[in-house]
Amino acid sequence: MRNIKLTVAYDGTSYHGFQEQRGTGLPTVQGVLEKCLSELAQRKVQVIGAGRTDAGVHARGQVINFDAGGWNIPTEKIPLAANGILPHDIAALNSREAPGDFHARFSATAKEYRYTIHNCRVPDPFLRRYSLFFPRQLDIGDMRRAAAYLIGEHDFSAFKAAGTPVKSAVRRLYDIRIEPGEIIQLFFRGNGFLYNMVRILVGTLLEVGLKKYPPQTVLEILSSGDRTGAGLTAPPQGLSLMKVWYDNPA
Amino acid sequence: MRNIKLTVAYDGTSYHGFQEQRGTGLPTVQGVLEKCLSELAQRKVQVIGAGRTDAGVHARGQVINFDAGGWNIPTEKIPLAANGILPHDIAALNSREAPGDFHARFSATAKEYRYTIHNCRVPDPFLRRYSLFFPRQLDIGDMRRAAAYLIGEHDFSAFKAAGTPVKSAVRRLYDIRIEPGEIIQLFFRGNGFLYNMVRILVGTLLEVGLKKYPPQTVLEILSSGDRTGAGLTAPPQGLSLMKVWYDNPA
């Protein structure tokens, strides 16, 4: 086995998420990567991804791993070869050989997601695929105060899509950083994220920013464990998986 | 007549150019604008555009004009109303009332186009719709020297698409500015542009940048008037109409 760790970026607009949905025929990022890598390796290649991004969600630093055993190509040439046949909305950025037990998803110690909000009265056609257009005034100070309550280890049951069973909803958020401007960027770094968690966190922070409730209310939402108390799920096109860590992320 | 000057931006990826092609059923920016404005005005609205951008070419500062006579809406509210029903890849930026004889195309004194080249070994899925991916080394100094020969008033017959009849191919280029980097941006400002002229100029400057011929060869190409001497037509997705002037552009 030659275990390759490959960093990839993709525009998720045209895909039904990262994860292959066998038998559905829906286009997925994993499906396209497996098809292209299998074509290059001339045998069936299975891909493991660090983050199972949803339909329409993007990635600038998704990490995958796969077995390139028997494929006669130097590790560092894999991105160039892959980019030669990948569609234009998926790119291989860099590759290196990882230990045999490296698993893109289970070995990850932290991930960072970015959510982009175009906070301007006038829409921009070049941002619409990559941001939420939100032309209302937001109180960034209140959003930051609410975000501060969310940092740390919590049961995030109130911030996961209803009806998605998990063994434990406890996750640790290391940091939430909010960069203001006409383009507001929210960065979420944590040891793991529940289904739709970032998008529900964003929806909730938007409600705080609109002053629908004060920052400390997110503490009540958090402790209630009740999804219906949190904000709407922000739309997918604003979200991007930026980076995956495999060492101490602190 | 109430003559409205409206600045619009669009992602041209999904359109067969700006200009409506009656009877073809192909989607055009003009067609969509006319449909939306007619819907708002509740009568047929005809749109005149400053630049007839090609299929796949974008605009950040296209200017149109149309008659809003009888349409009961304050001029400054038109962008908001239009953006409410325009598709996400077209946006109305700002509007003002112009003199009755204002014509978006014939009144224009200058236009600026930008061509974007992603000059990097690794492709970026988020730039592919808006740039030419060109992972080869370019001599920016030579490209700038060649560009300097093109500034001024010339017969640009060698830099127009073959088989496009015009009364005169004489145009004045006020400026060509090349900003280097991983993202190279070429800005062309002139009093008018022939069909495909910017894209052929870019194709030619790329050949100079690759050192296929020295900068001064563009003078020979220019004076030959022969399209076959110039470079290939650079693809449309790198091109964007940035600004239109209606006063002294010097």
Describe the 3D structure.
With 250 residues, chain A is an alpha+beta fold. Chain A folds into two domains: 3-97, 2-Layer Sandwich (Alpha-Beta Plaits), CATH 3.30.70; 110-245, Alpha-Beta Plaits, CATH 3.30.70.660. Helix content of chain A is 21%, strand content 27%. In chain A, strands 1, 2, 3, 4, 5, 6, 7, 8, 9 and 10 form a ten-stranded mixed beta sheet that branches. In chain A, a hairpin with a 3-residue loop joins β8 (170-179) and β9. In chain A, α3 (140-150) runs parallel beside α5. The two termini of chain A are 32 Å apart. The model of chain A has no long low-confidence stretch (mean pLDDT 95). The A-B interface holds A 9-11, 58, 60, 79-80, 83, 88-91, 93-94, 121-126, 128, 130 and B 9-11, 58, 60, 79-80, 83, 88-91, 93-94, 121-126, 128-130.
